[in-house]
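Researcher: Re-running this chain for the archive, since the previous output was lost when a drive failed. Same request as before.
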Amino acid sequence: MIGVLVVDDHAIFRSGLKRLFSDEADIRVEGEARSSAEALGKLRERHYDVVLLDISMEGRSGLDALASIRAEHPDLPVLMLSMYPEEQYAVIALKSGANGYASKDIEADDLTRAIREVARGGKYLTPRVSQAILAQMDGHDGRPLHQKLSSREYEILLLIVGGASLTEIGEKMLVSVKTVSTYRSRLLTKLGLSSNAELVRYALQHGILR
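Model: Regenerated structure tokens:
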């Protein structure tokens, strides 16, 4: 039996996964968490075979939670789930230590297959993500610039174009405003931009902001 910890701040989504897996003979939701802090507490209490981790939650993000999970449980399979298209976040999540990445609109059969794959130590990669990784390995990385940002830089990009102030971002990510400002300057440089207005325009042009 594959025991799953579901980490998502939406109770309806967690309940939906429990109903979905109730039809599977070998997968069971054995724990739920609404935040990264609660997830870490659950993981310290007992063993789970797979963590399903939402990438976007209130407070610390899923990528921050992933870093903490990796620090304490380096071999625990983690499958990231997100409403964001895989081409925006998948490679960043995998580079951060995830065993797989799936959009929340994934078909039920594909999700159960992904869980079984990561539970036995494999990686869950869609064809599109596999192609992106191979392109990087071959030195023909045709990804847009924002997909080459670090996970923290990309998180801050999303928050800025979403209208959050530097102070609000610092409070959400538990870092100082100075640190946020440094990340902002760094990501603007990498994208060849000079202002938040240009960043919003870039986000609209590349489908990051809809």
